[in-house]
Design brief:
Layout lengths: L6 H28 L4 H9 L18 H12 L3 H21 L2 H12 L5 E4 L15 E5 L2 E12 L6 E7 L9 E7 L5 E6 L10 E12 L3 E2 L5 H37 L1 E2 L2 E2 L4 H29 L5 H26 L10 H10 L7 H14 L1
Parallel strand pairs: 1-4
Antiparallel strand pairs: 2-3, 3-7, 4-5, 5-8, 6-7, 9-10
Helix pairs in contact: 1-3, 3-4, 3-6, 3-7, 4-5, 4-6, 6-7, 6-8, 6-9, 7-8, 8-9, 8-10
The structure holds acetoacetyl-coenzyme A.
């Protein structure tokens, strides 16, 4: 067991940290206020090779590992977690299923565009009536000659409206429930593809979250991803890795809040000395740092398991569960360290606290993570 990052991982971390601090930090609050994702940020990430970190060079990727990818999501989220989740959904939820289940043609056409950052990706599973019960989807896909016709609507789609490549799940045979669902690659220029309502959110406000509507949307049969009837498996396996991207986001949010709180505690003087020198605050910082480190280790472990091609579904669910919960605790404590100032929008910690909440909810609520973990335990 090696707890040291390699030189390559350290260099990547420094490169993404420099990018986040130099290019993202200044306007993160402004983007949050305006609820606006700046596509220029995505283009800059593409220039740095961040849009295709774990994909092989033959598909336009950087050819790095999953550990590199989670380090990048963590570093972006330390500064602006809206950017962190944009990259996470793009990579884990859109790129991964195409890399894993796509044909060579699909990979050359779609994965390459995603990896090179010419396209942005998104994943359409959740519907108004099916969130945790993902198998209960109502979106249907009917075969019509060489095409499928999709009808239905998906909600809470990260990167909705900005993305042009969507991995979409629909029922090709509703009677068969999860065994009758199929994954498709849908592009935003296909007839009948529509972007619906944009959500106004508590946190990650500059990341786009929209409804996506399919109205007689005509998708060529060659865009079926994997086999017909195996869509639920594609969706679940995608989430196994996606959840570790969210764990990385949560670690980054928590570490960002801890960094701000530590700096502030050293500067803020009360009762004649910095508040960091008062045990009530010093111990709080110690607890926060310990939680961040434990969450980071779980997250890196899940990534390394995937890199070693070992089972990682349970580890990823544990990482997401723990990191999401501690992100909420640590950011709440960071606001507490700042006192009244922390409650204002003059300081970034309130944004971190709002951003942390979603990590306990999306890509499977933390209650669903407990279900997934307990299923593994009971099966073992
Ligand atoms: N890998 C491979 N196969 C899997 C699997 C996995 N991780 N999990 C389940 N399966 C298979 C099972 O083996 C089973 O296969 P068989 O029928 O062949 O035996 C089949 O799928 C059904 O499994 P379950 O009976 O366990 O399925 P279920 O209906 O009880 O659901 C669940 C299980 C874990 C609750 C699942 O529905 C789930 O993960 N729900 C949460 C969904 C979720 O995370 N949604 C978030 C969407 S993404 C998002 O948030 C938006 C965004 O843009 C970020």
């Amino acid at each position: 067991m090696d707890f040291q990052l390699s030189e390559e991982h350290k260099m990547l971390r420094q490169m993404v940290r420099d990018f986040a601090e130099n290019e993202l930090a200044e306007k993160a609050g402004e983007r949050d206020e305006e609820e606006h994702f700046d596509m220029e940020v995505f283009h800059k990430m593409a220039e740095l090779g961040l849009t295709g970190i774990p994909w092989p060079e033959e598909y336009g990727g950087a050819g790095f590992d999953y550990l590199s990818y989670v380090i990048a999501v963590e570093e972006l989220s330390r500064v602006d977690s809206s950017v962190g989740v944009t990259l996470s959904a793009h990579t884990s939820l859109a790129g991964w299923p195409i890399y894993k289940f796509g044909t060579e043609e699909q990979k050359q056409k779609y994965l390459r565009a995603l990896a090179e950052g010419r396209s942005m990706g998104a994943y359409c599973l959740t519907e108004p009536g099916s969130g945790s019960d993902a198998a209960g989807m109502k979106t249907v896909a009917k075969r019509d000659g060489d095409d499928y016709i999709l009808n239905g609507s998906k909600i809470f789609i990260t990167n909705g409206g900005l993305a042009d490549i969507y991995v979409v799940f629909a029922a090709t045979n509703q009677e068969l429930k999860h065994k009758g669902q199929t994954a498709f690659i849908v592009t935003s220029d296909m007839l009948g593809f529509k972007v619906g309502k944009k959500e106004k959110k508590l946190g990650i406000r500059s990341s786009a979250t929209t409804e996506i509507i399919f109205e007689d949307c005509r998708v060529p049969a060659e865009n079926v991803l994997g086999k017909e009837g195996e869509g639920f498996k594609v969706a679940m396996m995608t989430l196994d890795g996606g959840r570790n991207g969210i764990a990385a986001q949560a670690v980054g949010i928590a570490d960002g809040a801890l960094t701000h709180a530590t700096a502030y505690a050293k500067e803020r003087v009360q009762f004649g000395k910095p508040i960091a020198a008062q045990q009530g605050i010093a111990f709080k910082l110690a607890d926060m740092a310990t939680k961040v480190e434990a969450a980071r280790l779980l997250t890196y472990q899940a990534a390394v398991l995937e890199d070693k091609k070992l089972p990682y579904g349970k580890a990823s669910a544990m990482a997401k569960l723990f990191a999401g919960d501690i992100a909420m605790e640590v950011t709440t404590d960071a606001v507490q360290v700042f006192g009244g100032y922390g409650y204002t929008r003059e300081y970034p910690v309130e944004r971190f606290m709002r951003d942390a909440k979603i990590t306990q909810i999306y890509e499977g609520t933390n209650e669903i993570q407990r279900l997934v973990i307990s299923n593994y335990l009971l099966k073992d």
